[in-house]
Each structure stands twice: as structure tokens, then as C-alpha cells.
Design goal:
This protein is an alpha/beta fold. The protein folds into two domains: about 120 residues, 3-Layer(aba) Sandwich (Rossmann fold); about 100 residues, Orthogonal Bundle (Arc Repressor Mutant, subunit A), CATH 1.10.10.10. About 40% of the residues lie in helices and about 20% in strands. The strands form three sheets. A five-stranded parallel β-sheet has the order 2-1-3-4-5, with helices on both faces. A four-stranded antiparallel β-sheet has the order 6-7-8-9, covered by helices on one side. It is elongated. The protein starts with a strand and ends with a strand.
Length: about 220
């Protein structure tokens, strides 16, 4: 289980990270709202623990923005605001649970267990953008109704792109998600496979809108 903790108080963030890791969770930490939002958008987590009051972007705004992007990862909101109307506001923003500060770590663990036990929404099996369609049930890809043959890694890379349309994806993110930092991965592996996809998706359809875009110094963005 992988958890993202977004907490600007270093002492609290360290306490949560160490405590959760002792319970065998994998924990990433961000100390401001913008960094937390970027991680939540770019990585896959089983749970987000968000502090309400954060610099740059508060927990409510993070939660609302994620829900607007159809990211349904469970959210546990931490805050010193304990009035009923505050709790309602937090839940209305898209949070799944609410824990007031100060809290006992055993109670936080119980909330974590409850939220991560909830059935997850099944990911969409048919993805489309413009005239490109990818179907994960039969591992098929087509553009302009023309079937496209992809290798297993090309298919996984395309699926990752299509689940993150419009986002700038760093090369390290791509390698982590598609190759899981396999020991055989070379520094230019992502670049090579993006080239394969460009040939099959864009160059093979010269009249269609290009879908793979290089963002110099960062990585790639997928979309028309």
C-alpha cells in the first residue's frame, strides 16, 4: 500500500511517515500543497493524507482539484478545525474521512485501514482521445478505425499516456510506472519507446493531429 502524506509541519510529517512505514506502508511526503497536488496527479496512491492548512494550496483545494480530474483516491483530511461546519466543508470538497488534530496514531491507523479496505473504482477499460482507441480488455489499439500492432511495453506506455492526458510526464515517472525501474532499463529506454509509439501513432497517420509532444527538459505530454 502506497500513501501520500501532505503536511507542512515537519515534525508531524516525519512522525506519520515513520509510524506508517513501521506498519509496512510505502510513504511519500510533500510539505506544501502544490508539491502534494503534483505528486497526487503524477503517481498512483492507495490513500492521500492531507492537512487542511497548507502553504501554496490548501487541502480543500487539492481535494477539489483531484476530484475534478476524476482521481478517486481516498482522502483522509487532517485539521485543527473541529467545528461541525468545518467537517461538512471538508467532506463536501471530496474528502472521504476527517480526523481532527491532535489525534492518537492508533486512531489514524484505524482510519487508514478502513479507507484502504473500501472497494476501488474499476479503471476505465476503453480509453479514447480524438480518433485513437485503446481497449484494455482485448489489448487492442486503433486509430481512424485502423488496427495498430503494439508490443506489450508499447501498449503499457500508451495506456499510461492515455490515463494522464494533458499532463507533463517526466521520463523518470514513465520508467517507474511502465518498467518499475527494471534493472535492464537503459537511460534512453523511455525515449526509444516513445519514438516507437510516435512512428505507429503519429507518423503512420500524417493527416491526423499529432498526439505525442516533447516538453523539452521535462519529458512528454500526450493529447491533441
Amino acid at each position: 500500500m502506497k500513501i501520500l502524506v501532505v503536511e507542512d509541519e515537519t515534525r508531524v510529517a516525519t512522525y506519520l511517515k515513520k509510524g506508517l512505514e513501521l506498519k509496512s506502508y510505502i510513504v511519500d511526503v510533500a510539505h506544501d500543497g502544490e508539491s502534494g497536488f503534483d505528486l497526487a496527479m503524477g503517481e498512483t496512491y492507495d490513500l492521500l493524507i492531507l492537512d487542511w492548512m497548507l502553504p501554496k494550496m490548501n487541502g480543500l483545494d487539492i481535494c477539489k482539484a483531484l476530484r475534478e480530474e476524476n482521481i478517486s483516491t481516498p482522502v483522509l483530511m487532517l485539521t485543527a478545525k473541529n467545528e461541525i461546519e468545518d467537517k461538512v466543508q471538508g467532506l463536501d470538497s471530496g474528502a472521504d474521512d476527517y480526523l481532527g488534530k491532535p489525534f492518537a496514531f492508533v486512531e489514524l491507523l484505524a482510519r487508514v485501514r478502513a479507507l484502504t479496505r473500501r472497494p476501488k473504482n474499476k479503471p476505465q477499460t476503453k480509453l479514447s482521445i480524438d480518433d485513437l482507441i485503446l481497449d484494455t480488455t482485448n489489448y487492442s489499439v486503433s486509430r481512424q478505425d485502423t488496427p495498430i500492432n503494439l508490443s506489450k511495453k508499447e501498449f503499457q506506455l500508451l495506456e499510461f499516456f492515455m490515463r494522464h492526458v494533458g499532463q507533463v510526464l517526466h521520463r523518470d515517472q514513465i520508467v517507474e510506472q511502465v518498467w518499475s525501474y527494471d534493472s535492464d532499463v537503459l537511460p534512453n529506454t523511455a525515449q526509444v519507446y516513445v519514438g516507437y509509439l510516435r512512428t505507429k501513432l503519429d507518423k503512420a497517420f500524417p493527416e491526423a493531429t499529432p498526439l505525442i509532444h516533447t516538453v523539452r527538459g521535462f519529458g512528454y505530454k500526450f493529447g491533441s
